[in-house]
Specification:
lysosome; protein transport; four-stranded antiparallel β-sheet; kinetochore; about 260 residues; Sec13/Seh1_fam; WD repeat
């Protein structure tokens, strides 16, 4: 058993006024974003003395903010958030000089994705080799995939497709695999409390021939509500972890893999 001497714990006052729902590191682990029921998002930077310094805080939505996610740094300093207010939002950081001649980090709302009619429960950027794409899932069971045709202009997003899962969805994860024989894949989890039927995890795969996303698999053995879902970061594994009443690990074999 580990003792308190086996790790270093850092605790700092986030200044959030309500429950923090999500926390997300950037690609390098030097920046941290948090979101809360206080409708705000905060961004923190790790300084040279390994202390976290808050560099930005702003009201991002008109209701609880469920999730926050960083885009790959290749696309700049970009965040996506989603909320109970039925929207997902795209934010880009700019650095300006304030009247005191000090540099100030400002996060600008570049786009609002407003197609959902219910709470948007999760939002995730795609792996960078797919370009600047983002997927959302909503309480009405709808998954939506968006793309910024021009990564330089984050005000323009087109919805590539929406897929209906028929039961509430609460979490989503992209498979990071970039092998040429692996089609893009997304896993979605449901927090539906009806435990009499299975099927709380769905796998979507992109059909390159038809140029559309298809639901290819429903994992029927899961009957308890799912709270989170994540593909392993190593793209060689195709391993999916599912947090429910128990922890489940699945090894997925893409449909076009021999």
């Amino acid at each position: 058993m580990q003792s308190s001497k086996d790790y270093l714990a850092f605790k700092f006052d986030s200044d959030h006024q309500d429950l923090i729902h999500d926390v997300s590191y950037d690609f390098f682990g030097k920046r941290l974003a948090t979101c809360s029921s206080d409708q705000c998002v905060q961004v923190w930077d790790l300084d040279n003395e390994d202390n976290w310094q808050k560099c930005a805080s702003w009201k991002a939505h008109n209701a609880s903010v469920w999730k926050v996610n960083w885009a790959h740094p290749e696309f700049g300093q970009v965040l996506a958030t989603c909320s109970f207010d039925k929207t997902a939002s795209i934010w880009e950081e700019t650095v300006v000089e304030n009247p005191s001649n000090k540099l100030e980090h400002i996060w600008v709302n570049k786009a609002n994705l407003v197609e959902s009619r219910t709470s948007v429960k999760d939002v995730k950027f795609a792996p960078k080799h797919l370009g600047l794409q983002v997927a959302t899932c909503s309480a009405d069971g709808t998954i939506r995939i968006y793309e910024a045709p021009d990564p330089v202009n984050l005000t323009q997003w087109s919805m590539l497709q929406q897929v209906h899962c028929k039961i509430p969805c609460c979490c989503i994860s992209w498979n990071p695999s970039m092998y040429r024989y692996h089609s893009p894949m997304i896993a979605v989890g449901s927090d539906d409390t009806n435990t009499s039927a299975g099927g709380k995890v769905f796998i979507l795969e992109h059909n390159d021939t038809l140029r559309q996303w298809e639901k290819i698999l429903t994992i029927m053995i899961l009957t308890d509500p799912v709270s989170d879902i994540a593909f392993a970061p190593n793209p060689a594994f195709n391993v999916l972890a599912v947090a429910s009443k128990d922890l489940h690990i699945f090894h997925l074999k893409p449909s076009n893999e021999k």
